[in-house]
């Protein structure tokens, strides 16, 4: 609190100091394309005689402050455009307006209007060139010309960025080999609330590309940015109203190859207008769509037997997933020469209806399980911000308040399990007795001739008459996060000499976050008859219903499965015909049946019984208070060298409450547990420095040394534990330390009208305090901590989270080339190319603990101790190689873009047995987009097709080389009409 008061006092003292410089003025204006009138973001505006200048923002606006009184020649440079010069007179204390327009220059002496995709490349290249830090950009024109299905897909084409997917659609980003929870996601600099139930990651598929004016991916944090971005930060810039009124409409239909249906659609309506002599602008966007994001998958489980990995189970999922999105954006701005007030509000909601059909075979338990589940998920995000930019003499003040909210609800998840016991041939064993034949593509040669999990289906009896209903479930959950933010920043740029420039920037930020999670789980074991009266109650209440056909008496505890069978299900297309999925339940009957059964807190009663042992320990609620301050000077030595040193101070206090169970195996009410609240505080002083050297007019070198952090996931620091019978414990660790990273980045860029922009970069990160889950095998009473409950005893195990004492070393190389090939002959001059490659390598020692076994007299084994068995592996989610290629072509009103994305194998799951670790297979995706202008003014027709090669996501068990999961999505296609006015 003392630090906070002192910080506020210093800010007020600075504002109260006389800051209006004498004998200087300002120059401001807009840089546009002479042919189209569109703004040119990232243009370099320079007064060579006194060494002063500025770059245009995303709207093409610039301002130069502290210019001595006099008359000057002002120069504008923009890659791909001709240089423009004009004169301007500066009067003391006044603002001189000077706007410039430039034109595309392809060949000396010849000018043309840039084609649509070429404009997108020019914008992106110039914004990256004008930045003093290491940044990748997706420009406004590139987003709007041939838009992606969502914002994540656009970000995923940048160097160093990999996508995580759901149903074939990108939804989260891995930046430079670091998982989504280690990256910051923002809208106009406002952090989006986390949409995940447990960690701090955000779903980017909520962001519509039609509301965006650009995407900036910062890979080296500045002191004026929040420090929790070990991988990087993604900032979505919103569209504002341009000078001319606009109206845009899109009507789109889509086809899903997996389901062979043409039911997807999208409607987009947006418009803008400026009022009050161009001072006030309003932009609004509405986006409604339906997308089928279904998938088929096969998965397998593995265990260690005789020191080798063997498959012990296999399952098949047919998931029908329909996402319905609704989103809207409003952006209002009021602009004067030295004042800008901006308000924005974005809302996005995705209602996902998911139907799951599953077969699961477990030869070890001799079980064949059949599952039907109906799930509804509602995910909403809400972002609001009001910002003020105000010049006070030589000082630029920016201030803002914002509110961000995420709500992730699962109001229902109805599930019914049927099981067939004794479901395999009597002579079943794990040795390979046959060849796989028509299962080619799933048969990977393993070790010791053990059975491939795909072959389990050949050993199943598939006796429908032996199946009975095993369990029914209803689960619901709600995750809620609200974040309030206020920030205040000042930039002061005194003029020292013509060859030495200095700018001070400092400010602070306050944030308050509230978060909660609630899980409710209701279940009933249909095979488990606790007392006769319960069985009789079930029989009486359901008498005469179709679910009891074949139910003999109340003494028969097996509830019939036959009435639930779906005789209409067609499995011929499942997993491209490699497998069939059969004997699955009708989801209409599952939903009708489970929803009709009442919920109860009493175990010995008719109905779905609340499982307190699942529901109570998972619930939590809490808050976080955040305070930050920074100082970041910018020092310019002529027009060649720029240094941006600085430091950032952050303090964060958390208070989370959770539940600790004090009874084992209890479902009934009253359920004994303790509610516990813990607080923790950490603060950091983080030095950072960026440097840029303009080696020549066509080459620059940028480097940075920064320190960043990542705070632990919510589900790891909530103070809960859950007792496991008879003497073990699962617990979270409120004392976990944030992950810390020291980052070195270097990038060399070459650029001119023929090369375009070519960048080669190197990055290295030293990361400590990675969090991992560990197991303690309690073999000595001294291992029992005082904080453990008394039921944890010798012979038990304790599962929890700790900070890794070993440091991770991550480094990589990025190559990025963007160019418009105007110099090629004839029609080839319409080509544009974007290609990037990223190599990443990481190494972390995982300090796993392995049990030490002793053979018992009866041939069994028991744990008698444990030993440290560290192993070295890459970071989770880190691909070794990423490659993106985009080739576009424009000719008059025709545009086409083909793209390829390659991602190498990725380490996905660690384990103290190397044979049970999981990697992904490499995958390549091909997409194609086409657009044609129609004879009517502003009308266009377009089509997009994704995953043309029908690539399959495959994860592999390291010990056998066999699949642990394979997901198939098929091709998705869209065709639409677009109107731009």
Keywords, separated by commas or semicolons:
981 residues; mainly beta; 22-stranded antiparallel barrel; five-stranded mixed β-sheet; 55 strands
SSE layout:
Blueprint: H1 2-16, E1 24-33, E2 44-47, E3 52-55, E4 61-68, E5 70-77, E6 84-90, E7 95-97, E8 100-102, E9 105-107, E10 110-111, H2 116-130, E11 135-139, H3 140-145, H4 151-155, E12 161-166, E13 169-175, E14 183-187, E15 190-191, E16 212-218, E17 232-238, E18 246-256, E19 261-275, E20 280-292, E21 295-305, E22 308-336, E23 339-362, E24 367-392, E25 395-421, E26 467-492, E27 495-497, E28 500-525, H5 532-541, E29 559-560, H6 587-596, E30 599-600, E31 608-610, H7 612-618, E32 620-637, E33 641-661, E34 673-696, E35 699-710, H8 714-717, E36 721-724, E37 728-731, E38 739-752, E39 756-768, E40 771-777, E41 797-803, E42 808-820, E43 831-846, E44 849-855, E45 861-868, E46 871-873, E47 881-891, E48 894-903, E49 907-909, E50 918-920, E51 923-933, E52 939-946, E53 952-957, E54 963-968, E55 972-980
Parallel strand pairs: 1-7, 1-8, 14-17, 30-31, 37-41
Antiparallel strand pairs: 1-4, 2-3, 2-5, 5-6, 9-10, 11-16, 12-13, 14-15, 16-17, 18-19, 18-55, 19-20, 20-22, 21-22, 21-54, 22-23, 23-24, 24-25, 25-26, 26-28, 26-29, 27-28, 28-31, 28-32, 32-33, 33-34, 34-35, 35-38, 36-37, 38-39, 39-42, 40-41, 42-43, 43-46, 43-47, 44-45, 47-48, 48-51, 49-50, 50-53, ...
For the secondary structure, the number of strands is 55
Q: Tell me the number of helical segments per DSSP (H or I, 4 or more residues long).
A: 8
CA gyration radius, whole angstroms: 31 Å
- Low-confidence stretches are 5-21, 107-111, 432-449, 550-555
Mean pLDDT across the residues is: 85
- What overall form do the CA principal axes indicate? globular
Helix percentage range: under 10%
How far the N terminus sits from the C terminus, by CA atoms, comes to 54 Å
Largest sheet: 22 strands, antiparallel, barrel
Percent strand: over 45%
Q: Looking at the chains present, what oligomeric state does this protein adopt?
A: single chain
- Structural category: mainly beta
């Amino acid at each position: 609190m003392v630090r906070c008061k002192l910080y506020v006092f210093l800010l007020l003292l600075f504002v109260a100091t006389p800051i209006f410089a004498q004998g200087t003025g300002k120059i401001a204006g807009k840089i546009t394309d002479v042919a189209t009138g569109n703004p040119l973001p990232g243009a370099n505006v320079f007064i060579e005689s006194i060494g002063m200048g500025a770059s245009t923002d995303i709207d093409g606006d610039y301002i130069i402050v502290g210019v001595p009184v006099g008359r000057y020649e002002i120069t504008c440079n923009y890659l791909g455009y001709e240089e423009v010069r004009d004169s301007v007179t500066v009067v003391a204390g006044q603002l001189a307006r000077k706007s410039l327009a430039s034109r595309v220059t392809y060949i000396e002496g010849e000018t043309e209007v840039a084609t649509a995709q070429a404009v997108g490349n020019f914008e992106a290249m110039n914004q990256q060139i004008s930045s003093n830090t290491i940044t990748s950009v997706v420009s406004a024109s590139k987003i709007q010309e041939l838009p992606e299905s969502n914002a994540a897909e656009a970000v995923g084409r940048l160097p160093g960025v990999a996508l995580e997917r759901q149903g074939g659609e990108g939804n989260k980003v891995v930046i430079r080999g670091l998982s989504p929870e280690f990256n910051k996601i923002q809208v106009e600099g406002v952090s989006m609330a986390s949409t995940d139930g447990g960690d701090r990651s955000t779903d980017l598929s909520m962001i519509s590309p039609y509301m965006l004016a650009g995407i900036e991916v910062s890979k080296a944090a500045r002191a004026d940015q929040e420090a929790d971005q070990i991988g990087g930060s993604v900032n979505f810039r919103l569209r504002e109203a341009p000078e001319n009124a606009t109206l845009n409409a899109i009507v789109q239909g889509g086809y899903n190859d997996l389901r062979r249906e043409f039911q997807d659609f999208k409607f987009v309506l947006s418009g803008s207008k400026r009022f009050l002599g161009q001072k006030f602008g309003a932009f609004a966007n509405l986006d409604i769509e339906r997308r089928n994001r279904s998938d088929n998958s096969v998965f397998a489980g593995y265990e260690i037997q005789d020191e080798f990995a063997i498959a012990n189970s296999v399952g098949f999922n047919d998931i029908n997933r329909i996402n319905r999105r609704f989103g809207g954006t409003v952006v209002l701005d009021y602009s004067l020469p030295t004042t800008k007030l901006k308000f924005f509000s974005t809302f996005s909601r995705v209602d996902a209806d998911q139907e799951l059909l599953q077969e699961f075979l477990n030869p070890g338990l001799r079980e064949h399980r059949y599952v039907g589940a109906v799930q509804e998920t509602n995910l909403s995000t809400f972002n609001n911000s009001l910002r003020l930019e105000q010049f006070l003499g030589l000082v630029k003040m920016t201030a803002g308040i914002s509110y961000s909210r995420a709500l992730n609800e699962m109001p229902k998840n109805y599930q019914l399990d049927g099981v067939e016991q004794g479901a395999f041939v009597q002579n079943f064993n794990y040795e390979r007795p046959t060849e796989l034949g028509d299962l080619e593509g799933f048969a990977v040669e393993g070790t010791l001739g053990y059975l491939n999990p795909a072959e389990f289906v050949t050993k199943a009896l598939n006796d429908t008459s032996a199946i009975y209903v095993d369990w029914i479930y209803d689960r619901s959950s709600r995750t809620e996060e609200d974040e309030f933010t206020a920030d205040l920043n000042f930039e002061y740029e005194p003029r020292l000499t013509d060859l030495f420039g200095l700018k001070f920037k400092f400010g602070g930020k306050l944030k308050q976050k509230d978060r909660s999670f609630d899980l409710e789980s209701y279940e009933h074991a249909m095979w488990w008859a606790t007392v006769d009266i319960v069985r009789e109650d079930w029989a009486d209440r359901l008498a005469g219903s179709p679910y009891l056909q074949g139910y003999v008496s109340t003494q028969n505890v097996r509830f019939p499965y036959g009435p639930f069978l779906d005789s209409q299900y067609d499995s011929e297309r499942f997993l491209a015909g490699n497998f069939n999925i059969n004997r699955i339940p009708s989801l209409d009957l599952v939903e009708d049946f489970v929803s009709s059964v009442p919920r109860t807190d009493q175990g010995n009663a008719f109905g779905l019984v609340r499982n307190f042992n699942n529901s109570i320990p998972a619930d939590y609620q809490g808050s976080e208070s955040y305070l930050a301050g920074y100082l970041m000077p910018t020092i310019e030595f002529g027009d060649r060298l720029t240094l941006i040193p600085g430091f950032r101070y952050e303090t964060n206090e958390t208070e989370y409450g959770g539940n600790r169970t004090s009874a084992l195996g209890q479902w009934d009410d009253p359920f004994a547990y303790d509610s516990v609240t813990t607080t923790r505080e950490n603060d950091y002083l983080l030095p950072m420095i960026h440097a840029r050297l303009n080696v020549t007019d066509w080459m620059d070198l940028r480097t940075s040394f920064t320190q960043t952090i990542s705070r632990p996931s919510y589900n790891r620091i909530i103070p809960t534990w859950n007792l496991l019978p008879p003497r073990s414990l699962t617990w979270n660790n409120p004392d976990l330390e944030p992950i810390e990273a020291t980052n070195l980045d270097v990038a060399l860029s070459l650029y001119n009208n023929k090369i375009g922009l070519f960048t080669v970069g190197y990055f290295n990160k030293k990361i400590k305090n990675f969090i991992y889950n560990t197991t303690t095998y309690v073999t000595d009473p001294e291992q029992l901590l005082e904080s453990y409950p008394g039921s944890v005893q010798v012979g038990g195990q304790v599962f929890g989270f700790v900070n890794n004492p070993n440091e991770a070393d991550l480094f990589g190389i990025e190559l990025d080339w963007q160019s418009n090939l105007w110099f090629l002959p004839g029609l080839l001059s319409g080509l544009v190319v974007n290609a990037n490659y990223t190599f990443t390598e990481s190494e972390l020692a995982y300090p796993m603990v392995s049990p030490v076994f002793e053979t018992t007299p009866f041939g069994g084994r028991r744990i008698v101790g444990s030993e440290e068995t560290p192993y070295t592996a890459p970071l989770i989610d880190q691909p070794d190689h990423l490659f993106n290629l985009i080739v576009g072509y424009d000719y008059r009103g025709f545009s086409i873009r083909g793209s390829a994305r390659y991602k190498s194998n990725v380490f996905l799951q660690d384990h103290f047995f190397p044979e049970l670790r999981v990697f992904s297979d490499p995958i390549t995706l091909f997409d194609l987009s086409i657009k044609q202008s129609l004879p009517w003014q502003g009308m266009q027709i377009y089509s997009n097709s994704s995953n043309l090669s029908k690539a399959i996501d495959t994860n592999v068990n390291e010990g056998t080389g066999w699949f642990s999961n394979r997901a198939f999505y098929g091709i998705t296609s869209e065709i639409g009409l677009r109107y731009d006015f």
